[in-house]
Amino acid sequence: MDMRVRKAHPMPEVAAFVAAMRAEFGSGIDDAIARGKRGEPTFFASENGRTVGTRIPSDGNVIPLGEAARERRYCQGCDGSCVGTLSHCRD
Questions:
Q1: What's the pTM value of the predicted model, to 2 decimals?
Q2: Would you say 73 and 60 are in contact if contact means Cβ atoms under 8 Å apart?
């Protein structure tokens, strides 16, 4: 009996992100991915040296995100003064 063996996904973080988007918002993400694969700048992902989709054209008006953007959180009653400081407003 021949059985198909499933390999580890080549882009596991992207796959998890897409699965979470699909669970939250439905199958609309599938259309965005398909359009990105056809050349529209609707979806682009890169992981482990692989890419899927179409990059958004860079016209020089790009602001790179730093760690402050990745370390975001919401504090009840926050006035925004902690944004970009890598600390909580309650600290």
A1: 0.56
A2: no
